[in-house]
Amino acid sequence: xxEVLDWVKEETVxxxxxxxxxxxxQEKLLSALFLxxxxxxxxxxxxxxxxxxxxxxxxxxxxTEAQVLAPHFRxxxxxxxxxxxxxxxxxxxxxDFTGKQVAAELGPLTSKHCRGLFLxxxxxxTPEKVCLGVVAxxxxxxxxxxxxxxxxxxxxEKESVRWLTGYQTACALAAETPDTQIISVADREGDIxxxxxxxxxxxxxxxxxxxIRAAQNRRVTVEDAxxxxxxxxxxxxxxxxxxxxxxxxxxxxxxRKARDLTQTVQAVTVTVQPPKRPAGSEPLGPVTLHAxxxxxxxxxxxxxxxxxxxxxxxxxxxxxxxMRVVGDYLCRWQVELYFKVLKSGCRVEKLYLTTRDRxxxxxxxxxxxxxxxxxxxxxxxxxxELPCTALFSEAEWQAVVMVVTKKPPPATPPSLDTVxxxxxxxxxxxxRRGDGSPGITxxxxxxxxxxxxxxxxxxxxxxxxxxx
Length: 468
Fold this sequence. Notes:
Number of domains: 3
Number of helices: 14
Shape: globular
Order of helices and strands: HHHHHEEEEEHEHEEEHEEEEHHHHHH
CATH architecture of the largest domain: Alpha-Beta Complex
Structural class: alpha+beta
Helix content: 25-40%
Largest sheet: 13 strands, mixed
CATH topology of the largest domain: Transposase Inhibitor Protein From Tn5, Chain A, domain 1
């Protein structure tokens, strides 16, 4: 029988299905899947009775993804309230189940030959890049019919309304945590005029700030000593004075090599003119935004210059202020790491479930598990001197230390960073000088082995359960 992990209990406080047995089953299943995150549900559960109980829980009408996630959302909001600044990062990813039996109950993806669903989470992340949890998540199935022309429909009938909803979630969080500054962050898909209009009309005490990468070269007016000029967004930003330069290491992606680069930083305040919208849409007026343009200086031969134009509600009148906006946008990469944990670590696209309801319920569990793996990797970097007992039970850290050192555990628990590095070593992290901090992949692989060692220690170690 799987024991319920301490952190699982914290993420299920207040869970209610009207049946305490269903609550206990969720806690057991969440613990089991975390301990064997890359395994199938039967492999993660221990014995026929546990497997049968897991599938019965997945089939319960009372169990929905919204109810499963609600306690985690509350726990995340509590963590958010403990920080002065938190970024809410939203993005969309396809979860592909093409070829699986459940695909018949799902919908088309971007490629009409693929079937699955769209996941749009909003993560709470500190400026130090520690993921505090998920504050909202949408599992959306696209209808079979081809949607009518996007330009003939109001925003609430478009798929892009999810970005506006994500910003409204950030505003609700800002109202709930008045001592925390909430900043909504999104990539180019989030460049929705209605989002800026929402920010303009929301009361200051309930409004979240935002940093969004521009996609549309909108009509704007710029006011200076010579008067008001009507121009385009990119032209206005490019004409602004250069505040300074910034240099950093750019992380590589599938289409771009990692490299060190230097960018110029320019900033300007603009008034964006409302776009044309179809009949029946909400009336829109001009909105005032700040724009930050960062352009790479002297890119390598054959490489496209790295350039971002960021729209924000934050002040950008100094280089320091503009660089804060750039730093907030760079935190957006954390949502990409989150998707990587879900797909490569938890292997959610390999799930073999026969119904849509089962799939959604177990995906809700994996959304929590992916956060926990990401959190363990990041909090060790941000707070390396914390004692390991802040995140690991006595059996967990003692088992890891004994396996690595071949010695009895010390009387004083080691630091969190020490134990995280030991665990990552089980997953292939070498830890040589210059290797930096452990990566997500090595950590989640190492966690599986660490939890196995901990369970063995609880059974066979001093005072082990097997001898009780």
